[in-house]
């Protein structure tokens, strides 16, 4: 196993590469950028690609993967691909149709990992973020255990290798784990996690249940105007982080990623710049000593860049709980 391909074993026996490439595209990022970025990531050596139906980057991911397969650079089985069930498709009878839309976009007959994107169902329809005439989100009532059963059926049908969740709190995970007739446990919980929000309680809980924690916003978010407060702190400018980076002759991004990896977290990194994409893959070339891990752990502020305001009025809004 090359250093670029370090992997973590999931509770269903499959392996997930410890470092993945994220493909979320803020509205302000021009079309074509995600395709270019995924091409660069695959060329640099990333083999774990994370997308979602709602990101509207699945077709870019498909184009990049197909071109690399055609060029003989990768085979389909070399790629670990994640996509996600969007909130407007959480009714059990709609789960498979959303997955099939994603598979069509991705030009694939299966994905490696399929996640429930949020535990917050929204009114089905054409809009990703449906609202009433007053601009209030139109929410839906669906039992997440019923949604989970439909996810299990997708796995049984061979459309996905592994199934998991995203943005769930420990109480919501517990509901699935205690579901009568549970067939498959979630393999992972993908959540916001970084130096300012180190998720230590949720990480401990997930480890105790053999559920892998996957970190998004690992470098402190791309700060999309629609979702992130522009006055929020820029993580990679943190003076303590920059001091540790200087000491190890590494970039602040490499230190921020390495900190999470050493805690047993699978990490998603995103960049549109070739030098940064290559640099992020070098995180397996060094290790942080325990004293630096302790210093970095002290940066936690329980600060969330992406509080998902569209779901805040839902009884299943996950971020009201401590973890």
UniProtKB/TrEMBL annotation:
Site feature Lowers pKa of active site Tyr, where: 84
Residues at the catalytic site: 55 (proton donor)
UniProt KW GTP-binding keyword: no
Binding residue positions for substrate: 117
PROSITE patterns (UniProt xref): ALDOKETO_REDUCTASE_2 (PS00062)
Record's signal peptide: none
All residue ranges annotated as the NADP-dependent oxidoreductase domain in the record: 19-300
Top-level taxon of origin: Eukaryota
InterPro entries noted in UniProt: AKR, AKR1C, Aldo/ket_reductase_CS, NAD(P)_OxRdtase_dom_sf, NADP_OxRdtase_dom
SUPFAM superfamilies in the cross-refs: NAD(P)-linked oxidoreductase
One term of GO molecular function: oxidoreductase activity
The keyword Oxidoreductase is annotated on this UniProt entry: yes
Keywords carried by this UniProt record: NADP, Oxidoreductase
The family this protein is said to belong to: Belongs to the aldo/keto reductase family.
PANTHER family attached to this UniProt entry: ALDO/KETO REDUCTASE
Protein name per its UniProtKB record: Aldo-keto reductase family 1, member C19
Gene name of this polypeptide: LOC103725886
